[in-house]
Amino acid sequence: MTSAPLAARLSIPSGPLFFPVTAYGPDGAVDPDTYRLHVRRGVEAGAAAVFACCGTGEFHALTPEEFQTCVRAAVEATEGRVPVVAGAGYGTALAVRYARLAEDAGADGLLAMPPYLVKAGQEGLVRHYRELAAATPLPVIVYQRDNAVFTPATVVELARAEGIVGLKDGCGDLDLMQRTVSAVRAAGVEDFLYFNGLPTAELTQPAYRGLGVTLYSSAVFCFAPEIALACHTALRTGDEAGVRRLVDGFYRPFAELRDRGQGYAVSLVKAGVRLRGLDVGEVRPPLHEPAGDHLKQLARLIERGQALLEEGM
């Protein structure tokens, strides 16, 4: 267990960043015991951090009470071995409430989701994240996507704000990301963290590494940690042939399957966890379960990924 600040603990990633699904029981209620097991298995498999109740964890579908239950369960399951970062979102007042619930549950940091529904200007976005960071001692990582896309100048303001330690990019605009990294560096902020937050981030991680971004979220780690860890190792060690093998044989086909259904970035991942033997329940509405033939394709893809590891990873 370590008390080092979050940024220091994440600066040199020892493994993929784990975004666990949220487990529900047969009655649809949150199942903390299964959730703890899911998180514990991920940590034991080599996760560098646990991001609890974020996008893959259906933050949008959880009540504040359920959110806190899950964050506390994640903290208990990790036992201090890796940091736990919790989601926080909606408007400023609710984001602050979630931040305090996460703090009380023992989280090490926050992933700040885009504000709910509204498309705000840069000035308003800066105010929102500054007020969130000022309201909690937990370090904040800002999630850039959808209705919260920032200019490089705005990211410089955020990077200079007390308590904001990083930016997770879910846009995929590499030109914007390069200009952002450059602007923050030119402003003299050297310890700001950047994350590749695109769905199936392994596909784009070689490009992000070219920008100096080594941290990325791995949804695949939820259901196939051995594949995700092999890809992380190949990326970290410069094994380009190994990365290409996994991208061509597993990650690209998985992304193509993911794109065949709305919400599959969550529901297909959760189905994968069930296919691997852990009953975490179904997704909550408005998400829906994958079609039967898509589940069969996913099962075959998992087998293909494991075969690739046996062939030479």
UniProtKB/TrEMBL annotation:
First-tier enzyme category under EC: lyase
InterPro entries: Aldolase_TIM, DapA-like, Dehydro-deoxyglucarate_dehyd
Stored Pfam families: DHDPS
Keywords: Lyase
Catalytic activity: 5-dehydro-4-deoxy-D-glucarate + H(+) = 2,5-dioxopentanoate + CO2 + H2O
Its EC number(s): 4.2.1.41
Statement: the UniProt record of this protein carries the keyword Transferase: no
GO MF assignments: 5-dehydro-4-deoxyglucarate dehydratase activity
Pathway listed: Carbohydrate acid metabolism; D-glucarate degradation; 2,5-dioxopentanoate from D-glucarate: step 2/2
Signal sequence interval, chain numbering: none
Lyase found in the keyword field: yes
Highest rank taxon of the organism: Bacteria
Family: Belongs to the DapA family.
NCBIfam families: PRK03620.1 (NF002958)
Name recorded for this polypeptide: Probable 5-dehydro-4-deoxyglucarate dehydratase
